[in-house]
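Q: What residues go here?
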């Protein structure tokens, strides 16, 4: 996993190398600065020479300023590198989620997915901006300083060379333990986010049944578990920092003792001894800085586990055959649709549909009926490529659907789901999602067809009315009609609707049925429905039950068969009067 994280710098290699380069250059200037410190202190206190030190003082000031500038530049380049990589990662993650499709997203835990998409990416930014540069510099800076110190005092260099690996070994041992705790902390955070998101989604239901207190207790329990896990990880991080400081202090003390002994014996000048003593804490500083960032680094790795797992997933609807050249630049319309022995099985082993075969000519309306869970929505999801068949194939004008470019295919489809989503923005903006170049007149005509225009006139801001999150300031029927209006406004030749009138009253439904009659004259209309009155508008009817196709044909053909559809129509007529 660390390899995948480190490989991310390939998007901005020059910024990464600048960050490392500035850090190494700063260590070089550090040596010369400390060398000048040693010389000026030796000159003043040992040789009692107060003259000719102005040049040295100017050099120290310049070196100090240059080091500050390099440190600032290194931090800025690291932050910029991380920000750019975060942008790339978030774009990759978004594209992958779109590629995996609504069916995959609906099966996932929404709260956990939100935490991964936002908080997880932020943790990786911290890893790239802080931890990764510290990890590289903790190797390069000590090596650079050892090379310079070797020219001054080999004994001190040897001591530092021996103690440095002890720090590395300790960090590796601590790292394994911290990684495990960081994973548990991330899982606890994901669980907390998931549960809180679930409560917010069902808040009205909880309020209605006076179940707020049990959920408050549940949130408290999950929050307490996260607190304990987080503190446990932090305790280990603080312990590692303490040990690093201790080893660094002991190492500095050992170097100081050896310097003092050799200084007394006259084997070392005061200037060189002071230079080495001043550099020694700076030699250990990169290790201490790495230890300070270690917790953030491990949290980044824990978050990356889930992110890279998502990026590694392959969409179900991947092309399985090469498309003919005629499909590259366009799709012939109108088009016929044919299912050939199509089956789809869900991951939980439940059957969506099994061995379904039927043909639908262009400019024909099709009603799909059956009890809940019969497979109606599965058929529609296969048509819009939210799902891919596990067996059989779907042909569009005799071309396999999976060979057609997904964007090209969807550009010809107007889709209305069972729970249409409305985005934050104006009503006009929500309508223009399906047709950005639609005129106000076209928008109004679509709303008139959806029996929504009169409602718009009653709103203070009309079509400029702002829609709150998920359309909560609109009724269920208004949201449904707005989604249907989008389908009417869509320029595509195929209209697919899943229970389009489920939230509408009988009067509004009857008015919409008239518009559907007009719509099917110029477009292919496919809809799943429970109400027989709506089904009677279709040219053809497909009856499914428990994933199997029971009946298919025109209204007249099915009535003559005296099967399921015939019984449903008789029951409907008896109930009507």
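A:
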């Amino acid at each position: 996993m660390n390899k995948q994280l480190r490989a991310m710098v390939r998007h901005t290699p020059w910024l990464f190398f600048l960050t490392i380069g500035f850090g190494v250059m700063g260590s070089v200037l550090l040596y010369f600065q400390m060398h000048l410190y040693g010389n000026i202190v030796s000159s003043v206190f040992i040789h009692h020479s107060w003259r000719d030190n102005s040049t040295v003082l100017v050099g120290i000031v310049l070196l100090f300023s240059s080091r500050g500038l390099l440190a600032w530049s290194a931090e800025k380049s690291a932050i910029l590198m991380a920000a750019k990589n975060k942008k790339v990662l978030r774009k990759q993650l978004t594209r992958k989620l779109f590629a995996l499709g609504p069916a995959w997203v609906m099966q996932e835990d929404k709260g956990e997915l939100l935490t991964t998409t936002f908080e997880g990416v932020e943790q990786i930014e911290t890893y790239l901006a802080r931890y990764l540069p510290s990890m590289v510099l903790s190797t390069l800076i000590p090596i650079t300083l050892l090379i310079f110190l070797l020219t001054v005092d080999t004994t001190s260099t040897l001591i530092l060379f021996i103690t440095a690996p002890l720090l590395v070994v300790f960090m590796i041992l601590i790292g394994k333990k911290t990684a495990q705790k960081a994973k548990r902390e991330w899982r606890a955070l994901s669980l907390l986010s998931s549960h809180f998101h679930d409560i917010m989604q069902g808040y009205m239901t909880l309020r209605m049944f006076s179940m707020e207190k049990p959920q408050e207790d549940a949130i408290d329990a999950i929050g307490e578990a996260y607190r304990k896990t987080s503190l446990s990880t932090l305790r280990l991080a603080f312990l590692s920092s303490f040990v690093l400081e201790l080893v660094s202090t002991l190492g500095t003390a050992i170097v100081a003792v050896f310097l003092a002994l050799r200084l007394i014996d006259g084997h070392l000048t005061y200037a060189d001894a002071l230079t080495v003593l001043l550099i020694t804490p700076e030699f250990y500083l990169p290790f201490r800085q790495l230890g300070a960032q270690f917790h953030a680094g491990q949290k980044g790795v824990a978050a990356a586990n889930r992110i890279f797992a998502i990026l590694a997933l392959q969409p179900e609807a991947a092309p399985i055959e090469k498309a003919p050249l005629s499909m590259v630049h366009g799709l012939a319309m109108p088009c016929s649709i044919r299912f050939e022995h199509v089956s789809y099985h869900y991951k939980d082993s439940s059957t969506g549909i099994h061995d379904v075969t039927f043909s639908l000519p262009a400019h024909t309306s099709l009603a799909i009926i059956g009890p809940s869970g019969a497979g109606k929505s599965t058929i529609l999801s296969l048509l819009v490529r939210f799902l891919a068949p596990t067996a059989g194939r779907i042909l569009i004008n005799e071309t396999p659907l999976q060979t057609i470019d997904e964007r090209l295919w969807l550009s010809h489809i107007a889709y209305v789901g069972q729970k249409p989503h409305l985005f934050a923005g104006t009503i006009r903006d929500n309508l223009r999602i399906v047709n950005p170049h639609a005129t106000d007149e076209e928008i109004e005509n679509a709303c008139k067809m959806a029996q929504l225009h009169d409602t718009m006139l009653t709103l203070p801001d009309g079509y400029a009315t702002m829609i709150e999150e998920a359309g909560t300031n609109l009724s269920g029927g208004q949201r449904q009609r707005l989604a249907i209006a989008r389908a009417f406004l869509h320029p595509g030749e195929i209209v697919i609707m899943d229970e389009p009138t489920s939230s509408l009253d009988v009067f509004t439904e009857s008015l919409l049925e008239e518009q559907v009659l007009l719509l099917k004259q110029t477009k292919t209309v496919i809809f799943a429905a429970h109400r027989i009155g709506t089904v009677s508008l279709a040219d053809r009817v497909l009856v499914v039950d428990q994933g199997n196709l029971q009946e298919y044909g025109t209204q007249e053909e099915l009535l003559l068969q005296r099967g399921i559809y015939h019984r449903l129509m008789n029951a409907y007529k008896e109930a009507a009067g």
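A: Context that may help when evaluating the design: Confidence is low (pLDDT under 50) at residues 318-329. The longest strand covers residues 351-360.
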